[in-house]
Structure formats: C-alpha cells, structure tokens
Amino acid sequence: MTNHIFGRSTKGSLPVATAGDGCYLIDATGKRYLDGSGGAAVSCLGHSNAAVRAALHDQLDRVAFAHTGFFTSDPAEQLADTLVAHAPEGIERVYLVSGGSEAVEASLKLARQYFLEIGQPQRHRVIARRQSYHGNTLGALATGGNEWRRAQFAPMLVETTHISPCYEYRDRAEDESVEAYGLRVADELEAEIQRLGPDSVMAFVAEPVVGATAGAVPAVPGYLKRIREICDRHGVLLILDEVMCGMGRTGHLFACQEDGVAPDMITIAKGLGAGYQPIGALLVQGRIYDAIAKGSGFFQHGHTYMGHAMAAAAANAVLGEILNRDLLTRVREQGAKLDAKLRSSLGQHPHVGDIRGRGLFRGVELVADRTTKEPFDPARKLNARIKAEAFANGLICYPMGGTIDGQRGDHVLLAPPFIIEDSQ
Ligand code: PLP
C-alpha cells in the first residue's frame, strides 16, 4: 500500500477494514470488532445488510447519477415521500444532501433566505447551545458550541451566541424538580432573544438528544415544548439537528416525536444511509418552502452530489428495513436492556457518574469523584485511553470529552446497530 492518504490524524497507522458482518467489522488480519457505536452512530443496520446491498446493485444497473439541475430520480422522489409520511406535523419538503454538516449549512441558508423572501431582512442571528456539535464546515462549526473544535478557527466563524444545554446531571439544582429545571434552562432562550433584539433573531438550533459533545444527553420532559413556545412567540425558526439522534436511534424515527414537538426544520444524516452511502437531508415545513416557491422560486444553494440516486436508493432500503422489520420497537426493547445492563454492571463504579440516553443511544459519564462530579484531568487523556483499550479488545465505542476549554465531562457513547443481540 502507498502512504499518501491524509486521514484524521497524522500519528500512527490504522488497521485496514476489509469486511463487515452484521454487528462486526473485520480487519485485514481477520480480527473482528464489535461495532458498539456504529462508528459515530452511523451503522444502524450493521455492516452487510442484504436488502441495502440489493437496492444498491439494482440502482447501479439503472442509473447512478443524474445532476439535479437537469433531472430528478425515482429513488430521490420516493425517499422524500417516505420521510414526509413519517415526519412530525407540518414537514412537507425534503432537501437531499450528502451528510450532516451539509444539512446544517442548508438549514442556516434556507432560514436566512426565508426571512428575506417574507420581508424580514433584519433577521440573521442564530442562537445555539454550549456543548453541542452541528458539523465541521464553517457555518455548522460556528453554530456548534464545542470550544475545542471551534478554537483555532474562531476568527473565521460568523458570530453565534450559545445558551446553556439541557444537561440535568450537571446543572439541575438539588432542590429543583426536573420540570422546573427544564423550564429554567429553556427560558435562557427567551432572555437571549430579548438581549439580541427579537426582530434580529433568525433561528435557534439544538440537538434533541446531544450526541458527540455530551454523550447521549436527552432534553428533560417539557424543555423542547417550552423552546417551541418561545420560538413561536418571537417568530424564530426552530431547527432540530437530528443528524446523530434521528432515524430511529432513540426508538422513534425522529427523536423530537418523543418530546411531542414539531420543529420548523429537521436535519438528518448518519443513520439515513446507515453508512452504505453518504447522505443527509433537510426536512422543511411547508410554509417555508411555499415562501420560496411564491417568492424567488429558487433556493440559492446546492451541491453537485445533492439528491444522488445511489445514496437515495440506499436510504430507501434502510428506511424500508427500519419500518418493515419494526426495528423501532426493537431499538426500544434492546435499549432498555442495554440501559439495565450498564446500570447493573457499572452503576456503582467509583468513576461512573451518570448513565443516560434513549433507545440504543446511551452515554456513560466518567468522573474523578462521584460525589463532587469532578471530571478527570484532561492531561490523563482518559477518552483516548478507553478508545484504544476497547479497540485492542475488539470493541468499537465512542469516548469523547475531557475538560478542555470549559467542556465538562468525559463520556463513552454507545450506539450499536439496531440488530444487536442480547449476547453481543
Ligand atoms: N450534527 C450532529 C448532531 C452531529 O453529530 C454531526 C456529526 O457527528 C453533524 C451534525 C455533522 O455531520 P457530518 O459529520 O455527516 O457532516
């Protein structure tokens, strides 16, 4: 093999993945790895799904690519129809892209163009939350609140303000009910909108269950409903980023369905293509699409590979598997077992502070001290050590965190394929 690839890290070398078998990845030496995190919550069907492979072969035999400036395609049309049929109320249109960051970028630009089209050109500000991740392209990175990822690019990032996340384990006061806590942190949005000037705010962006930066931290009951009310009061668009927590990961096709909230836009990716193809989507309320349709008639955005027929064919097959095999029920059942197993095996461990999540999206927060909740010293590089140790033992998990730049907590994220067996 040549040595010209420019990967994530310039240090060390990685094993070569040569095969996939259900919940396992296999490297060139024949070593098997149980994919306990689906990579980064991607491989929701495991690695050799027969239906997706057949759908890809079939589409390849028809047509692989037809530029969306000239054509639509059957798989893209079908995918949009299926997503709308199962989406929260009011979602009527689907914009297909190649991944999560692209979906978030599209949501920001569509929000801006929407307000221009309806005659509110002063709206351009975005509010998001600390300890969030919305992607690595510049607009998405500016939206995310992860200081470590943002720091070196800060001069290039458009100004975005960040309110508190909904992070019960860390922030709820002892004498505060869960509901009161949720309303208190949600009301930070009201205060921030007032501070910036309600007429200038375009959108609020949040993950319903925070993934990479916090480790499967769900919003507490009532939080997102209050957020929805505040957005409505001020005409601010609510964009929910379900790139990691969507597509059945929590046991509902869209995580926000469990919270009973219908956002103005939803971003999805990861589980949509389940790793078989790179694909993401922006789902949009009908009235936002209509404003563009009745106005300029043109969303001033686009990527060469948007609406790719092969990617859409894979996503159709993935959704077919999730819906027809009732994998959402399975996610809830296996998720409850995983949660119980984590609690019985790790719940009393002196360095386990919290176990949380929904469905097959679970996080274990590690602390130096359970009583004070003091995080580990980042110099100990705990997450890197856990990742390496697990990998050496044939388990893929997704540890993140550290106490770098105010990001509190080390955690291990688990997001196994929906087909995971009890024994695995
Ligand atoms: N949004 C969320 C919530 C994510 O977790 C991620 C990726 O981890 C992204 C956006 C970016 O997606 P991608 O890596 O496909 O660009």
Task: Write the SSE topology.
Layout: E1 17-21, E2 24-27, E3 32-35, H1 38-41, H2 50-62, H3 74-86, E4 91-97, H4 100-117, E5 125-129, H5 138-143, H6 147-150, E6 161-163, H7 168-171, H8 178-196, E7 201-206, E8 209-210, E9 217-218, H9 223-234, E10 237-241, H10 256-259, E11 265-268, E12 280-285, H11 286-294, H12 309-324, H13 327-346, E13 352-358, E14 361-366, H14 382-392, E15 395-396, E16 398-401, E17 410-414
Parallel strand pairs: 3-15, 5-6, 5-7, 7-10, 10-11
Antiparallel strand pairs: 1-2, 2-3, 4-12, 8-9, 11-12, 13-14, 14-17, 16-17
Helix pairs in contact: 2-12, 3-12, 4-11, 8-9
This protein binds pyridoxal-5'-phosphate.
Pyridoxal-5'-phosphate (PLP) binds at residues 40, 99-101, 104, 133-135, 207, 211-212, 241, 243-244, 269.
Pfam family, one: Aminotran_3
Family: Belongs to the class-III pyridoxal-phosphate-dependent aminotransferase family.
Protein name: Aspartate aminotransferase family protein
